[in-house]
Every structure is written in structure tokens, then in C-alpha cells.
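Subject: two folds for Thursday's group meeting

Dear M.,

Sorry for the delay on this. The cluster queue was jammed most of the week, so I only got both jobs back this morning. I'm pasting them in the order they finished. Each block is the input sequence followed by the predicted C-alpha cells. Could you check whether the formatting survives your parser before we put anything on slides? The first protein is the one we discussed after the seminar.
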Amino acid sequence: MSATRRSFFCAVGLFSALAGPVRAQTPAPAEAENGRFAMTPVANGFLRLDTKTGQTSLCTTSADQAQCRAGADERAALEAEIARLSKENAALKAGAAAPPALAQQDEEDRRFNRAMDRAETFMRRMLRLFRETEKPAPPSL
């Protein structure tokens, strides 16, 4: 990348860093009255303040991009959330494995019960037929 392009991108990054507080001062809807982030220039780049959560990040510009690094308290919160989601994901995976086995057992039970009902119906009909055919013989004289 040429030196001219690098200078251009650095200027754009610096302008956007300095334009952050200006944007926050322009009139906006009530829900975003002050903007979400406030940018403040510092020696190594700029400091980004999240006005909703109060978390800060140090942002630096290099060559053609800006990088923001989360503060220690923000990083701890992110790691705690990742750990919580990992546990929840593992629990969901473990829970998802059990129901198909139960569903298969339930299906086997239904098939067995249906077969037993049919066998019982068959036996009752057969017994009824035997009773009907066992009519007493007429008395002989």
C-alpha cells in the first residue's frame, strides 16, 4: 500500500475519531440524544466511552485500520458471559440427546399395547364363537 493511501486512511481514522464527539452534540431523536459512544483523543489514539454501559475501550489506529481493545472490566464480563453460554449449550446438548431415546421407548410401548389389544380382541371373539357353537344337543328319546 502506498504512503499516500496510508496517509489518507490515517486521516480518515483521525477524522472519524474526532468527529465522534461532534456527532454526539448534533440534534438527534430522544432515544439517542447523546449517542451511544463518546470519543476522546489520548496520546496513543482515542478513548471510546460507551455512554449506556459506562465501559471504556482504548482505540488505536495503525496503517489502514482502527483497533479497539476492551478494558479489563469489560473483558471479564465477556468471559463470564461466554462461560455461561458454554454451560447452557452443554446442558441443551445433553438434554436434546435424552428425549429421542424416550420417544423411541414410548413408540415401542404403544406398539406393544396395540398388539396386546388386538390379541385380546381376537381371543374374545374366538371364545364367543366357541360358546355359540356349543349348543346343547337335543335330548334323545
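Second protein, same layout:
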Amino acid sequence: MTTRPRYDVAIVGGGMVGAVLAVALSEADFHVALVEAKQPKSLDPEAGYDLRQSAIAPGPRRLLENLGLWDRLPDNRICPFTGMKVWQADQDDELFLEHTAVGLPELGHIVENALVVDAAWQAFERVDVYCPAKMAALNVEAQAARLTLDDEQEITAALVVGAEGANSPVREAAGITTTGWGYGQRCTVGTVTPERHHRHIAWQRFTETGPVAFLPLADGRCSLAWHADDALADELAELDDDEFCRRLTEASGGVLGRIQHMGTRAAFPLKLMHAREYVQPRVAIAGDAAHVVHPMAGQGVNLGLLDVAELVAALEAGRAAGADAGEITYLKRYQRARMADNMMMLAATDGLKRLYGSHNPLLRSLRGLAISGASRLAPIRQIMISQAVGLSNDGPRLLR
């Protein structure tokens, strides 16, 4: 069995949250190991868009800028959006949130997840990478956590972080329980070519079976997120591209004209999940390992990147006080900083899903009033935008 030097932090999971966390901790002079099952694919700048796209808010973007990762992203694959338009299929009122309400040049950027992952992996100068490798066992001892990998290598670290997604082996091995439920819906994603330009606006139309959202892409096309009840999702999966485009044009109310082309598409199930705790002695979880939200608000990745900023801040505070990275006192500081905010977002997206997914006539009336009221009251619109962009002057240093 190979003996490895002790690390400050060993991260399991090299996706967006895990990879960015590895860069952030290494830049903060922590000794970091990263364990990942599969090497990320090299990106061809001439290839089509990846299916997974995220709306990166200004706060998390600042984190990426402070780590030098934002400048590594190719400009021609990033699209700023300056407004969000939300409306209900059977109502005339619409809610339009625009960047001028908070004095920003944009509300966020649509970015392929794979681009951020690639940028982070290219910045691993001071990160020891174990790939391909999987965690086979986790043992927590008084002075260290011990990871055994599937190739029998052993890693010891003051702290092990699970950032390997909703089915986190680290979370399971640590005995951290979760609560949550499925929504009986799937989200169909892909790149669509509309008849009209998106005008750098994110569009979302609520229908009885779920919202249809278009996110603007740099070349004038849109990234589709069509949330549909399982029965409809099954039906959509069987359609050829021409019929799918016709149905999508109808479901979107033709807001961007006729949908002319649909690229490769895929669908994934929607659920809510929240861990009952984010930390234990020498163990922490972050990103989807800790929380999974309904994607209608587009906040999943942003929440994970905010986790990164707060976890780094907590570990830096512990080090300044002479504690190692696995000290529970400072890990709980991270949990306090993130759990309440994440629970608020989970509750908000769950409430929206239930409000807009209900066939109850009273709720149908209330959701129309909600859009109508928010569209007429500027202070409400400004509060909604401020929450969405994720900027704070008194937060952790990586967000400032």
C-alpha cells in the first residue's frame, strides 16, 4: 500500500465546485489533493455547445475573477444577459428584471459548465491530482481523515471535502443524512436556433406542465431548459427534431418566433435534496453534495460557488487561529454561513414550483397576481435582482 504525504485538504470530486475549490485553497497556500474518477475532456473551441450551461451571477463571477479563472474562459463562448423576462401562459402581465435596476452592466453570464471545469484544471499547478481514482473508504481519526482509493492508494488529510455531486460517497460514508423529494418532472436541455435573436434576455414562460426557459448564447442561439412532467417528458423524448421544434414553438408562445433547429438534447430528473448538516469533524460537503435545488431559478451552480467562498474563508480563519483545516469549530462557521441561505433558496424554488405547477384555480389566480404585483413595484423588482446577482460588500474576501 502506497503511503502519501499528509494534505491539509483532500477534495473528492473534480467537477465545477470541487475543481474551483481546489484552485481557491491552493491559491490560499493550503496543501491540496483532488480525487476524480474521470479526466475532463479537452474542449474543442470549434465544437458545439455543451449540454450543461449555467447562469453565473456577478457574485460567483467575482470569485472566478479573483482566482484568475474568468480570464481563462474564451470570450466567444460566454454570453452576458441584461434582463430576465418571466410570464405565465394564460396571463397578459409579465415580470421584467433588468440590469439597470442595480447599476450593473449585466445580470450575469451564460457559461458552459465544462469551460469552468477546464479552466480550473488548467490552474492546478499546486494541486496533487489523483485521476482516474475513486474513494473506496473513508476513516476519520483524531488527527486526520484517511481516504483509501480504489487502486489501494491511501491519502491522509486534515479535512476531506465531498464535492462529487448529489449521490456523494463522502456524505454517505460520513453518515450525513438528507431530506428531499422528487418532483415527477424532467428537464430537457440542448441548444436551439430561434427565428429571432434573444436580445441578451433570459426568457421563461410558465405553462401548466412546467416552465420553458431560453438562455441566450453568444452566437444568437439559446440554451433550452424545458421542465416537463414525466408523462410529457416521455412524449417529448420520442419526437423527431421537426416535431419537437414545433411543440417547443407552441410551448414558448412563439416569443422568439419559430424554433428552427434543435441540436442534441438530453433530459434529467428534477428533485430537491438538502443535507441535515454540512460538516463533521474532519469532513465537509459542498455544492450538490449538500443541496440540490429545482433549476427554474438557475441558482444551483451559484450556490455551490458561494459554498466555495465561505469554506475557504472558514479554513483561513481557522489557520489564523492556529487550528488545522479539520477543526470542527471553524467548519461550523462555514455551515452557519451557508446553510440558512441555501435553505431559503430551496424553499423559494420549491414554493415557485408548487405555485406554478398547480392546477388549483385559486393558486392560478395568485400566481398571476404575483407576477402582476412584482412587475408594477420597482422596490420588489430591485430586491429580486439583488438576490439573484449575489453581490455583497461584507462577505468573504473571494467575493469582494
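Two things I noticed about the second structure. The chain has ten helices and 19 strands. The domain at 7-78+111-180+272-356+391-399 is CATH 3.50.50.60 (FAD/NAD(P)-binding domain).

Cheers,
T.
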